[in-house]
PhoH family protein (Cohnella cellulosilytica), 443 residues
Amino acid sequence: MRKIYVLDTNVLLHDPLSLYAFDDNEIIIPSVVLEEIDSKKRLADEIGRNARNISRELDAMRTQGPLHAGVPLPGGGLLKVEMNHRRFVKVQELFGEMTNDNRILAVALNYHMEEQESDDPRPVVLVSKDVLVRVKADVLGIVAQDYLSDRIATDTDQYTGYFTMLVHPSVIDEFYSTRSLNIKSLGLKTTLHPNEFVILRDELGTSKSALLKVTSDGQRLEPLHMSNDPVWGITARNAQQRMALELLLSDDIPLVTLTGRAGTGKTLLTLAAGLLKTEDEHRFKKLLIARPVVPMGKDIGYLPGEKDEKLRPWMQPIYDNLEYLFDTKKAGDLDKILMGMGSIQVEALTYIRGRSIPGQFILIDEAQNLSKHEVKTIVSRVGENSKIVLLGDPEQIDHPYLDSQSNGLTYLVERFKEEGISGHVTLEKGERSRLAQLATEKL
């Protein structure tokens, strides 16, 4: 049965192409949504870009007919701009002032009431990324849901970058003797991806095990190439950190993504690998470190000083890790070291658009706060002989329109898991401290 979808403003600002994601159903855009989009179109960030994009999409549709009467969509559906919020007495009685959100609810409620009176009522669904709008809709008896079309994977299906398998001990013995295994010989029911890791454990219960990696062509399993020697004083403390260092130190994998909770060692391991490749091996001419400027909690406003002074509070987590790696004792020592080296550059992602970055080791921290478009912009900046590493915790998102399944980092992981030039690992065990580990588990 065809449905009627009423779209909230945040759906269009999150994904301007959401108009085409509802197949052959009818899409209703309340007129107040156009006003909200108009108020955002002059912004210089991605919200402003999306507002301009959706404005152009709607303007192009006008050539097919008046939007208030409805225009056909490519998927067989119908798009209509609706002013039907005149009867908003029930909404006003429940929620008081007629805010823009309440006007959108009134449109959905009126459609719902009209459909209930028809001989063949169609379901009316309000689509919003605002949790409270969905709660209000439920109070009014309207079906409401989040916008799900852009979610690349569910929580249970997200790619972790490694796979654990119980095998007969003879298989482990064969690997240690030949240093290679054919994937087909394992009889796996699941598909292994290039550069994915496999942990073989003895099905008979002994401590015998092996850690392997899928070759870049996805055909065979091979041993890890990197030893477990310290990297700038940092040694892998668990299997996932060992996997991460294997990817970070490999010159054949220019794109690496690491996810995991706070304290799992993502940033520290990447900085150590970057310093080794830049300062010791001279594989790259510069170590570029960047992160999005997104506050946790209330924004502290404008900061005084030059660009570097303004960025320092936002980049302090990076400097904390560098102080640990350089083992600085006094305040100001790190600044002197960085000034003397000249090969380490710390920047906000605001300045990366339009650049081409060849021959550098690029670290993008807090990438879970990036949208799909922003991730595309960043990765497409990478020039020849560069390596880019994106880090983040999909459970800690400060962006108002992103979640653990729709953020740019998760999107990148899922899109590139089939590619031989990329690798991913989800770090699980916290190594910062026992207290930090308990905090992530219990709070």
Remarks:
- DSSP finds 14 helices and 17 strands in the chain.
